[in-house]
Amino acid sequence: xxxxxxxxxxxxxxxxxxxxxxxxxxxxxxxxxxxxxxxxxxxxxxxxxxxxxxxxxxxxxxxxxxxxxxxxxxxxxxxxxxxxxxxxxxxxxxxxxxxxxxxxxxxxxxxxxxx
Amino acid sequence: xxxxxxxxxxxxxxxxxxxxxxxxxxxxxxxxxxxxxxxxxxxxxxxxxxxxxxxxxxxxxxxxxxxxxxxxxxxxxxxxxxxxxxxxxxxxxxxxxxxxxxxxxxx
Lengths: 115, 107
Prior knowledge:
The complex is a heterodimer.
Chain A: E1 4-7, E2 10-13, E3 19-25, E4 31-38, E5 42-49, E6 56-57, E7 64-68, E8 74-78, E9 87-94, E10 105-106, E11 110-114
Parallel strand pairs in A: 2-11
Antiparallel strand pairs in A: 1-3, 3-8, 4-5, 4-9, 5-6, 7-8, 9-10, 9-11
Chain B: E1 3-7, E2 10-14, E3 19-26, E4 32-38, E5 45-50, E6 56-59, E7 62-66, E8 70-75, E9 84-91, E10 95-97, E11 101-106
Parallel strand pairs in B: 2-11
Antiparallel strand pairs in B: 1-3, 3-8, 4-5, 4-9, 6-7, 7-8, 9-10, 9-11
């Protein structure tokens, strides 16, 4: 059982380049999330999708866009990467909504470095 | 503003040496408090949900407790494989994560 799969696992970008992080879940969950994790900052929510066809901003959405392609897939796009976006990005999914039961299933992370 | 603070930031114990991790919070309309474990290079893994003061949950050597202002994760007779970062999160309008406690258990 794969759970939540993220690609790529590592990426190095130059300032101004664009890229898309892909996420797919096979648990038939309704809600999906993108977080970033930085030292000393904890996990911060970038965007979330409560259900297929909907997306909403989280705590730190600036510089990012998302697409809920279908129930399984939720992508995160950086249109013009900046060094401040160097981080580890986690995709997560849950059966219920944002506060729900709090039981999120996380992918293994995508480590992004912007030079 | 909803806030979660975990202490200590890092804790180093000898195998078998019991201790506790703290998660204090201020949130309006608590819907639940959640503990996660995160191994290096991995995503967080869900451990427990606590909903009301006085509630306790146990899993192997871990026991989580909840009061009105804080939660404790008690680790009894830990083993090296318990080494990880433990994250606390509170749910209100959204999930708010603490910064984590990095636990190291030396053999």
